[in-house]
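Narrative of activities, Objective 1.

The group set out to show that a structural description can be obtained from nothing but a protein's sequence at a throughput compatible with the screening campaign. Below is one input-output pair from the validation batch, recorded exactly as produced.
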Amino acid sequence: MVDSWEIWSDYHPHKPKRYAGEVWIGYDPSFSGDNAALAVIAPPRTPLGPYRILEVKQFNNIPAHEQALYIQKFIGMYNVSYLAIDNTGNGIAVADHVAVFFPHLTRLNYNPDLKTEMGLRTKELLQKQKLHFDSGLTVVAKSLLSIKKAVTAQGRNVTLVTTRSAQTGHGDLAWAIMNGLTKAPLIHTVGNTGRTTARIKVSS
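Output recorded for this entry:
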């Protein structure tokens, strides 16, 4: 958590074009009882720089075509090079609407392996202090902390689930952030020579 007003001189939240560099957008569509959530992420401008969550937004009780309109609005405010949407359930309809004006979007078809990979990537970035967001966005921290490991119904795989609260919904912001980060590599270089690796063990 950082003081973005002090250190992000290239981000201007009150201007029509808020940030000149490229951004990635992750979107978690709304289902019954959930919020929809959008996260705008600036990838590092230097090899050792951080990923920055510039902005997050939550929506409630709006149909798929209106969710797409909100996404279109954010595309108009940023230079979006990557857009990833959960393509399950109502996400299929949202993605179909978005594809009309952003045809190269990435559709994420959730499964235990993908969700585990998404969680490992985000955990790694947080542990290395490579994922930054404004200290005022405490809802982001709470949403990330709502992500828990669990065993699938068949008992064969480990997956990720979220605990629900009035403030974090169903971890919607966390999923939006992790969706946006799917373009980031899972293995990151430390310094100039060191490397770290992450292993995923899946039971048969």
